[in-house]
């Protein structure tokens, strides 16, 4: 009998859908040690009857996930923790176990991170029905349909803000979506406390299958696209949330080289259990290092500490990162006011104490392991870079079939202005951003003229909206 590994089990086809290979992210390099661990006795999941596979509303989808998917992910988390002899075991639990209001449907918890017999929610998540919401609704010219699409993002964004964590997810019977949030400042002054739940209307309400329920999510959205779902803090005008970054996994994905739902959820749990997952203004690359002493290097995602940098390691200047994040954290000052160094050190010490002396977290072991350099990833790779995460191929196909995206030409309308949208290539020259307008004439613009929108950037002309996936 061929011995299985954790990766083999997480890549097995989902039991209730016809699995087909699709382009997906490859994060195996970052979690190579954990995914390569042999797994002789993975959980045996009773597939039940055909009735157990019927999804009629969010409640039955939650039951399905609890029976067939979550036990495998939790089994992988526990097995890796046991093999690596970690003191902390992470568990994907019902969201009601956590301190978050609402509550969310799901949460990652640990017995080492509790307050008054309640768990801190390290990774809030929500369940949505794919039948009531499609990822391509994000490109819809119908204002109501597009607005419906934004609601889950506001919802899980609320939970992430309350938990003061940067990651969250939305899972449906069609897709799994990982989200990462960051903040920006919009003025001077001292940041107030953590954001209140009412900053992310609407409140969390379960919607029956015959209602206006929505599911899943794709894209990097402009703040303006949320309409009333503002990401601003009314009591702290100096910061607000940036459009979330995302990655998508399909239920149809299977096999090596593809990002299956179970693999995606496992890896996101590993990220959420990382060294420092507070919401900040900006983040270093996932596979990067920082220097904390003459012979002390720490991996920014896993918390692994080494005396000598691995080959081809990406060393990031922590001082510049701290400056970038100084205005974005919950306990940070204004952009010009700086950050309280003592508070920052105390918070880091608090994070380490929570880990009970661990040398990292679930994914943070193997001090001498050489992390592989980032490979040439596919378009929606897990790099939390909106320029690379925009519109995975599976969704482009859907949109092209509906003529909502026509590469190199007209592409429907701008969701925010209803102007006819045109794809353009932008070139930077002498601090100017140049592109050819509808008539082929060269147009000069500044970066401030471009607005971040779903999947890229948009420039508003008199009659047309010009769109580019990435500014140079």
UniProtKB/TrEMBL annotation:
Domain of life per record: Eukaryota
Q: Where is this region: Disordered?
A: 187-206, 309-368
| Source organism per UniProt | Coniochaeta ligniaria NRRL 30616
- Write out the biased-composition intervals (Basic and acidic residues): 195-204, 345-368
* Stated name of the protein: Uncharacterized protein
């Amino acid at each position: 009998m061929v011995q299985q590994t954790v990766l083999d089990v997480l890549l097995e086809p989902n039991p209730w859908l016809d699995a087909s290979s699709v382009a997906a992210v490859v994060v195996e390099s970052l979690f190579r040690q954990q995914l390569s661990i042999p797994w002789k006795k993975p959980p045996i999941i009773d597939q039940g009857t055909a009735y157990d596979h019927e999804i009629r509303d969010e409640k039955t989808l939650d039951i399905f996930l609890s029976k067939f998917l979550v036990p495998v992910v939790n089994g992988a988390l526990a097995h890796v923790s046991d093999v690596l002899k970690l003191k902390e075991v992470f568990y994907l639990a019902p969201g009601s176990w956590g301190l978050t209001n609402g509550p969310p449907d799901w949460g990652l918890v640990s017995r080492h991170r509790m307050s008054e017999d309640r768990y801190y929610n390290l990774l809030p998540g929500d369940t949505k029905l794919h039948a009531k919401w499609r990822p391509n609704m994000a490109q819809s010219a119908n204002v109501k349909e597009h607005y419906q699409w934004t609601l889950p993002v506001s919802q899980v964004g609320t939970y992430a803000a309350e938990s003061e964590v940067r990651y969250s997810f939305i899972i449906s019977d069609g897709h799994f979506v990982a989200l990462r949030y960051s903040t920006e400042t919009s003025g001077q002054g001292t940041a107030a406390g953590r954001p209140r739940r009412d900053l992310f209307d609407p409140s969390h309400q379960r919607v029956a299958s015959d209602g206006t329920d929505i599911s899943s999510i794709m894209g990097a959205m402009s703040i303006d696209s949320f309409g009333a779902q503002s990401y601003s803090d009314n009591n702290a005008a100096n910061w607000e949330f940036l459009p979330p970054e995302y990655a998508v996994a399909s239920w149809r994905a299977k096999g090596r080289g593809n990002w299956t739902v179970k693999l995606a959820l496992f890896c996101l749990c590993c990220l959420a259990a990382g060294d420092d997952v507070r919401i900040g203004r900006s983040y270093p690359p996932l596979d990067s290092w920082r220097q904390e002493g003459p012979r002390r290097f720490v991996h920014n995602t896993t918390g692994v500490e080494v005396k000598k940098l691995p080959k081809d390691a990406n060393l990031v200047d922590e001082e510049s990162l701290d400056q970038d994040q100084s205005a974005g954290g919950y306990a940070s000052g204004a952009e010009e006011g700086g950050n309280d160094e003592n508070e920052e050190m105390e918070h880091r010490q608090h994070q380490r104490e929570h880990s009970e002396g661990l040398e990292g977290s679930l994914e943070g072991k193997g001090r001498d392991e050489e992390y592989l350099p980032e490979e040439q990833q596919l378009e929606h790779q897990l790099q939390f870079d909106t320029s690379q995460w925009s519109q995975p191929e599976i969704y482009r196909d859907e949109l092209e079939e509906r003529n909502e995206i026509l590469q190199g030409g007209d592409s429907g309308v701008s969701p925010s202005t209803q102007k006819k949208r045109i794809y353009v290539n932008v070139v930077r020259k002498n601090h100017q951003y140049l592109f050819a307008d509808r008539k082929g004439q060269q147009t000069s613009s500044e970066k401030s003229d471009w607005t971040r929108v779903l999947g890229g950037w948009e420039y508003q002309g008199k009659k047309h909206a010009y769109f580019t996936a990435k500014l140079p």
